[in-house]
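Protocol step 4 of 6: structure prediction from sequence.
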Amino acid sequence: MTSCSSLGPLQPLQAVQWTSQMLHTAQFGLGSSYCSSWSVHPVRKTLTKSLEVLCLARNGRVLRLMGSNVSSADGHPECVLVEIIGSLLATGETERSVAVVTSQSEDGTPPSVTVPGLPERWSKHVVNWDEMATQTKSLLNSGNNVLMIPPWGRRSTVAGEQEGEERRLLSYSTASRSLLEFQEEILLHCPAPDVDAVLCVLLPASTVRSERFRLFRSDLMANWQVTHAVYIRDVFPNVHTSFEGVLLCLVPRGHADPLVRFFEVGKAEDTGAADVLADFNRLQRMKGSTTEFGYVFRGDLEAGDSLAYGLRDPKIEAKRQDLAHFGYTAPLEELFEIRRGKFHPVAHRGQLCEANALGAARVLAGRDLRLDGTITDADAEATWMLSEEPDLLRANDFLIPVISVKSDKRGFKVAKFCGTYPATWNSNVLVLRPLESVPPEVIDFAVAYLRSPAATQLHSAYNSTFHLGREIGELTVPIPDEEILAALRNLREAQNNFLEWADEAGRVIDSIFDYPSVKEARPKIIEAGRFVRWRNREAANLDDPDFVVRRAFPYPIAHRWRVMEASLSGGPPGSGYTSILDTAESVLTFLAQVVLVLARAAGIEVKAVEAIQRKLGGGSGPGMGDWAAVLQETSGKHFAVGVTQSGLANIIGMFRTADVEAARVRLSNRRNDEAHNRRVEPADLAEAIDSALTDLRILTLAAAFLVDMPLRHVTAASWDSFASVATVTYREMIGDHWVVKSETDQVSANDIETDSLYILDPDGKWHLLRPFVVVRHCPQCRTISTFHVDACINGTVRLKSIENGHTVMDQQEVPALKTVGLL
């Protein structure tokens, strides 16, 4: 048979003739007849509307016929399901015939669903439901692979049994299984044969993943080995499109590799049949890893385990583990007391009352909860009841519906109760009551996660429905670490401040006409709004990246930046250009010193230090290229262990960013050109300044994490042996000036040095910068400056200021420099 890929563009008449030939081949059995029952209709439909017909073929099999006026999804689910069934039933050590076993409706028993497009050459067996197990067993032992399509649903109560007894039996009492669902009882009475055989069975997806069917799966998997679980929806005629079924492939234990292949057929409107089938065939050949629509599970599958698709999906598991990067993860029940509603309008109708009755409490239901986290106002349809104190909601309780809409791609509806009126909740709502031991920021973070699409996406991967039952307490939520918590506290404080400032501005505006006269009001209004206007100007300045660097970066960078701006605004262009390159060197130098300090604390060897050591030993010293080499090394594999050190992780990420590294390279090249007398021509200086300044901003703003890593000059420290705490007095060297007020802090470390520099990582840990960076009074500019090693001359080191390049000779740091390997 000719494949469509070899035809090239078809003229309309050629397309009709070729399509007719393909149909003839498919219908009369010269090729695969998998699709014979559905191929005629789409083609006829297409030919009546358009002559542009495309016949999609794969390995000589007609898969689907599509016209330009017909949706590409036409026939997709049935085609894919039939192809997959055929592929699974063709496996096995020996070639076998295929039989299909279905049931007929009798005495109110639901019939089996139908699957369009099954090959005519497969034998069909339609029997009563209670004969399906026997018939399937006989066919398997007679040399057939079998597709079983049992009826689905719960059996009616047997005469003489009470409703309570039915519920007891359905909870898997080992004493009796007389009230199992149809598909359960049929499969449990169908033992695995001793011969090599394949049994494919179509089931509701809940049968293989719901906790309710655990004991059924345990008994089934004791005899059968699951090799495939293929999830598919929108396939079965007369079944709602949202219904999800699963094609379970079973073989007798010991007749297949201990692998389970999970596959999830995409929706018809999302993916073409050929793509899905090609992906399934690829999965069939794999012994591990994932494809676009499936994956191979190689772990141990315990009898009775849920076969939910997302439970073992590496992609879903990666997303779940990724949540731990906020800090760690924990089950929801470690943050909240989970309280279930008791009120039911029928069972508690005697407690219903009017809204104005004494002791009335509003009964909140799922429909009262909004997606924005608020609760609707009480209206005429609101329910009120007499409720006692233990059953009332408290302020700051959170409510979440028991059932969410699965098609809703947004997060869960989690509404906060503010306690403005007495209220309780009904049985279709859960209450999450924050535990007193959990900080408010952690609660807010967890609630924000629950409201996000990420929460519903992960929950739907592990659960068959969006019914929040007993397992809600085990729902994984991210817990922020101290760094994130600090950021959240700052955000909350900023939010409160902004709201307060907005209220203050509103009060000033509202008071304009409160004064007896305009003459009296005018100065009052101007005076009252002065601080509001000042705050607004300061906040607006934060949108200026240069302002942020001058105000919030560590002093060595911020001071150098201020000098550069002064040079660009008032000096000759050549001086401004050189100042940009000097600032770039200061940024790279300071970052490199931080890397050396944090890498040493993390036990990471920095190989670039060897080159610096050789230069210092030879009488010269490190330059911009050497410090850049230290920073480039952070992208190496041996720095991966430093990802757990939050400060180092920021720098590692910075120099793995293509734009930042490209900017650094261009600035280094410019610095190198200047050093080797390849200076920019005066006519090109303006353009060179713009380009270099752009690169410098890219480089410096990528290091914005330094704002959360304060640089502190310790001026005094005292250790309390009984309290095991040190009281430290320091100047925070942040911004473009070193003269700042002294502050104090308490540190649980007894080795804090006086007159030394420390940098705090985002976790709040103090790291000594000496001897990589030391603080000295500069003899040239008579100010406090920070210095790094620049050369070693006759046993004395020359230190160079990061801020302005001034130098000073020093012997005090020689032993320490030898200890850290720079000398």
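Step 5 (inspection) to follow. Residues 1-75, 157-178 have pLDDT under 50 and may be disordered.
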